[in-house]
Amino acid sequence: MTRDHDSGLILINVLVILSLAATVVYVMLTLADLAIARSQAFSAAGEGLALIQGGEQFAIAALRRDMIDAPDSDNPAEPWKRVEQEAIDIPGGTIELRIEDAQGLFNLNTLAGATPRGEGILRLIGEAIDLPPQIVARIVTSLQFDGPLPRIEDLRDRAGLSPEDLSNLSRFATALPGKGEVNANAAPVELLTLLIDSPAQARMLLARRARAGFLTPADFETAQVEPPPGVGYRSDLYRLRTTVRLGPTVQSVESLLLRHDGPTGPEVVVIGRRNALAVVAPPPSP
Q1: What is the dotted CATH code of the domain comprising 37-103+236-280?
Q2: CA separation for the pair 39, 57 (Å, rounded)
Q3: Whether the Cβ atoms of residue 82 and residue 283 lie closer than 8 Å to each other
Q4: Is 156 exposed, middle or buried (0-12, 13-18, 19+ CB in 10 A)?
Q5: b or e along 52-68 (b: 16 or more beta carbons within 10 Å of the residue's beta carbon)?
């Protein structure tokens, strides 16, 4: 009886030890799998960043070429827009490019500094979106005394805009470096209609833009419209969004590109980047 009882205890102890050993082995293997998964994710993230930089170089080359070939007008019918790519397959994932003219909206930073301009445009926008005059005045004051906006979202703190007011303003305005004009070839319909005081003439010009893909000074002359102050036909700033999916990672970066005349000719440089999305999918649960 005692011998059988002792044998039973020994067997139980052995089984407990084996169970613990199996658990330790399982945990060690799981941790190893997690480490491998994380290593693969970080490796994919590094490759993704390299591809994003490659996308920037692709856009830079196209914008520089356009600056040489067509320096007087910029519009989405030009070759630079063909940089855009739907998600295309690459080894291990996909890459997608989106590019847009950043000067399609009114640049609030034209109101900044010692030589502000564009206050009349802001007042028109304020009336169109029912923005109270005192808020419009606070925006102007903030820009003139506090300097340019890094982001339009900063108006929440600097001028006390509500989320709704900010959302409405963002349909017409943005915050960009410098004091570039609104490009009539990139402006949304509602902004261009607002800037052209005559609805009938605005419709004529918008129909012409829809047919040809762009507007010229001659089109305004034909429509007997004086081009609004602060409106032009070319752009120096462009936004590029590159989205890369590789393995367990998804990375999306928005790059701001500036075209300018450099010491040796036309140049295009990246002057800002913002991570729109950076996701590393977690490895499967053990």
Answers
A1: 3.30.1300.30
A2: 28
A3: no
A4: middle
A5: beebbebbbebbbebbe
Where exactly are the structural domains of the chain?
A: 37-103+236-280, 106-171, 181-232
218 pLDDT higher than 90: yes
Q: What is the pLDDT of residue 270?
A: 96
CA–CA gap between residue 213 and residue 51 (Å, rounded):
31
Sheet holding 85-90, edge to edge: 85-90, 93-101, 237-246, 249-262, 265-280
236 phi and psi angles, rounded to 5 deg: -115, -15
Would the pTM count as exceeding 0.90? no
Please state, in angstroms and rounded to a whole number, the distance separating the CA atoms of residues 37 and 30: 10
CB 180 within 8 A of CB 230: no
Indicate the DSSP class of residue 102. G
Distances (CA, A) of 197 to 39, 114, 166: 60, 28, 24
Hunting for tokens 């980047």 — which residue is that? Answer: 273
Q: What angle do CA 215, 219, 225 make, to 5 degrees?
A: 115
Q: What is the pLDDT of residue 90?
A: 87
* Least confident among 94-108, 143-157, 263-277: 263-277
90 bridge partner residues: 93
Mean pLDDT, residues 189-207 taken together: 92
What per-residue confidence (pLDDT) applies to 18? 46
Residue whose C-alpha is closest to residue 142's, from 157, 164, 153, 131? 157
CA angle 77, 82, 86 (to 5 degrees): 125
Place of tokens 């590019």: 99
User: Letter for the amino acid at 244?
Assistant: V
Residue 51 structure tokens = 């591809």
